[in-house]
Amino acid sequence: MRALVTGGAGFIGSHLIDRLISRGDEVVVLDNLSSGKIEFIQTHIDSGSVVLHEGDITNFDDVHGAMEGIDCVFHLAANPDIRLGTKITDTDLKQGTIATYNIVESMRRCEVKKIVFASSSVVYGENAPMPTPENHGPCMPISLYGASKQAGEGLISSWVGTFGLQAWIFRFANIIGHRGTHGVIFDFIHKLKADPSRLEVLGNGLQEKSYMEVGDCVDGILHVMENSNESLNLFNLGSHDTASVSRIAEIVIEETNCKDAKIEYTGGDRGWAGDIPRAMLGIDKMLSTGYDVRYNSEDAIRHTAKCLIEEIGL
Ligand code: NAD
How far apart are CA 7 and CA 17, in angstroms? Predict the structure, then answer.
């Protein structure tokens, strides 16, 4: 299979590419290297198994230039920073909604039939039952990033209904692990590196979410694809439990050996406007395909802390 991975130089994209290459797929990457790093996929580029198109998904010609001869698109490129929407209000509109239009429209013109979309648990909004099943609705996201994911899902679903696309939409929990370049564990390690005597935690620390290790995530994507064949396949991908932000702070302090660090909470029930304080995805549908995760949330957090401490160099 010849796959196009948008955002392939990113955290999740580069792990997905490792799996695609190891099973013998050819891979084209479209990435503007804004948050991705070429070194994550350099060995595959050097070996000739990955072709990198350095371009922008907000530019239709860049998207179209990478689409020729593709069998399946893995659409992962997006602004990864949910908080950015509180300052620049058209980022997610352009990088999420418009960009996803560019992808599906280019697919239609090139007769590419299969798409995988990296959506998010944040589409459910904040008053969903926990764990949240895929058929929960109405979905009322409270962040601009969440709105763009929901819009992306809607565009893909409409291209399925109108132009015969086949789609796998995955609503991810918090994905963490080796090569992470953002998120709570990454932030905590950087803060402790700058000042080992204190750790500022956004919110009251009681925010509680589900964490999934990145290898579990990409294996889950490929397993579910092989074991589902509707025209529109919608799956939550997550782990069996949750962890609180204060527990993450404790684990990072243990792993960095900054034992004297004083945890300072900024207060309030959430980290920033648009943050969802408590989230846990229902994963029965994923489990019903015969796939299960290797890591629970806390093990994934500790594993990630160890990996990132080595990568960041503390
Ligand atoms: P990431 O920032 O590591 O990856 C995003 C990639 O897209 C990067 O390589 C970046 O350079 C590229 N990119 C960004 N804007 C681009 C543009 N305009 N044109 C071309 N390339 C562009 O983030 P990630 O954590 O690997 O996330 C991958 C996808 O999964 C994103 O769509 C994200 O919204 C989604 N997601 C991630 C998580 C998580 O916890 N990491 C959770 C839910 C959903």
Answer: 10
